[in-house]
Design goal:
single chain; about 150 residues; alpha+beta; 4-stranded antiparallel beta sheet; 5 helices; 4 strands; about 35% helix; elongated
Length: about 150
Amino acid sequence: MGEKGKDHLSDACRKCGSFCCTYYALPIEIPETKEDYDDLRWFLMHEGNYICVEDGAWYLNIGAKCKNLLPEGKCAAYDKRPEICRKHGHKGEACEFFGEYEYEERFHAPEEIEWYAVREMGLKKEEVKGWYVHEDEEFWKMIAELSARGK
């Protein structure tokens, strides 16, 4: 990715509504147990949150608008903004507007992480009582078909 000029980014910020200022992402441990996946289900039960996997690393994206984001999409603390904001979209740093984030996985709902956990860990229906997927008969049919095909 080439470096983008200030005018190019300013235009992009106006067009996308300063999306990068409406959430923040924190690295999380790679889930290894059913309990780990259950914790991820809890994160996804909160509005605006999603989980993504990028280059094998897992992140919790928390939907929370920056308190310095003005209605027109500009920053009220532009001259005082943190370095993470200054670097965003510059010098090889990715920017959402240009589609530069490529996720291997992205989960928006508890059911999505449940489906993933069942497939990855080989969990059985009786092991996921209390999860949404437990009652999803179509899902279990699909899992049985995939198992029969050896996938």
